[in-house]
Design a protein that fits this description.
Blueprint lengths: L6 E6 L6 H5 L3 E3 L6 H7 L6 E6 L11 H10 L3 E2 L9 H10 L13
Parallel strand pairs: 1-2, 1-3, 3-4
Length: 112
Amino acid sequence: MEKLQNILLYEWNSWRGYLISHLVEPHCEARWDDEWAVLDAACGPGIDAVLFHHCLSHAALFPRRRAEFEQRLAQKGIRVLNAGLADMRKRTLHAMLERAGLRCARAAARTG
């Protein structure tokens, strides 16, 4: 399988068993307190997109400067594939699916 070379996986605390880790070649280990220079250096020539990948359900503040990183990447013409999707809790996913008119796996409310 040929790996995608134009997407940078900016990951924290993720094991390599996830499908995306088998599809994407460049990886950059993320830390909560990373400075812009760390991510900027990892985005070498040919990087068109970045995916923030982590084992957190609610990651609006991971890394600490996530909003700034997303903005600076956009200024460089690099898409963040999951920009603005920092809340991946089950209740949030269910609500997103329902708003889109799609079926979800939410359990029915108990009665009686």
